[in-house]
Automatic annotation (TrEMBL):
Name of the featured protein: Glutathione synthase/RimK-type ligase, ATP-grasp superfamily
Domain of life, source organism: Bacteria
Lineage summary: Bacteria, Bacillati, Actinomycetota, Actinomycetes, Mycobacteriales
InterPro entries xref list: DcsG_Biosynth_Enzyme
Organism field: Mycobacterium terramassiliense
Amino acid sequence: MKLARPDVFHPRIVLAGGPRHHDDSGLVPALRARGLHARWLPWRDPQTAGADLVILRAAPDAEGRDEFLGWARRIRHLLNPPDAVAWNLGARYLRDLQDDGVPTAPDRTAQATLIFLAGKPSHAWPLEPEFESWDLGYAAIASAAARARIGTRDLLYARADVAGEELVGLDLVAPSLGWSQLDVDTRDRAQRDFALAVESACERLGLGPFSHRRP
């Protein structure tokens, strides 16, 4: 691919995943619209380990969890960060949230799915939730970020499933972001926000366009 500005640094971005999230097809065009060039590769592909930034879009199966966590810690820059991923894959993450004052109910059925991008509310389905639900979701990601010793904005994405005033589950690893649940305008806006969040992450990580000027 010929880049428009060869004198400007273009980070090598990989969306690490497979067919699980079939409605992620708009992410590469959304990133490209911000001047960010990304490609899809499996997380086990050797080329993924050489990327400047890896965005998780597939989770491991139970048998491959240890291998996956070892791989995650070897990646130069991983979104979401490996400490948050390892904590979220742990068996007691909901108990940790409960200990931090977040009301949880793992046995209930979710009524609203909330998506946060860079620590901010993005979109939800099947219905627009009350403000209290967003507050509950934010409390969960704030607790998760604190346990991983990062800021909430360092979580590129988070999915919180809630039922009433209780959290059913939190996914920071590679959640479905529900693009196919949205109307066209909302989906375009949300995917643009996703790309902006990646762009901001690149700046924080020293991967901005002028961080490595080429001669």
